[in-house]
Fold this protein.
Amino acid sequence: MNKNNENDANNSEDIVYGRHPVEELLVHSPERIEKIFLKDSIGRKGIEDILNQASKRKIPVSFVPDRKISDLAGKDSVSQGIVALISPTKYFTLKEWLPSVDMDSNPIVIVLDELEDPHNVGAILRSAAAAGASGVILGKHNQAQVNATVYKTSAGTAGRVPIVRVSNINDALKNLKDAGFWIIGLDGNSKKTLWQEDFNSSTALVVGSEGSGIRTKTLEACDFTVSIPMQNNVESLNASVSTALVLYEWARRKAN
């Protein structure tokens, strides 16, 4: 993509919008930002940091009409008048990522099995970064990729943990087992609850799709499953909330 051609800036995977996500990028991944677009009527009081950081890193900034912002971010997006054109998301291969993992630290990695809601993916990436996960693995097919919505939902934290993309989730699970991970499926039907898991070994947590959960073959590839204890006849929590609960139970056990 030509970084100087604004007409090319319409691929949602190359756009991040909103004040906080753009500020996060400027602090943590400024090398990915190719250009920043600001609504020409935006008040300067709230964007001094963005302007200063962009100037410091020699990132071009353009003030454009509101219509241009809407075209870039989408007319229904809450862009706050701020859009960043970024280089494509950095995905790692499993082969690239595995050697970097400290297996002696009993790490946890999240494996997404065909999650289609980018809001869930973004929230999971944020929780993974906050809790200290070693990576998030996702498939190339039937899976929400890291796009503008994911970045917005993650509040700019997408990319703070490695994002690993694989062609086949079940093959990836086999490779994780060979590397020393125990595969745990997050399954509402499991009789074993989260509170009964001690997390004393390297863990790969498989999270299924919003509608049907973990696919049958993938569930069979898990060493065991856990469920989230529920009360008051609540059937389930959404994927991102359930994942966050597991991540923080893992972090709590690891801290004790």
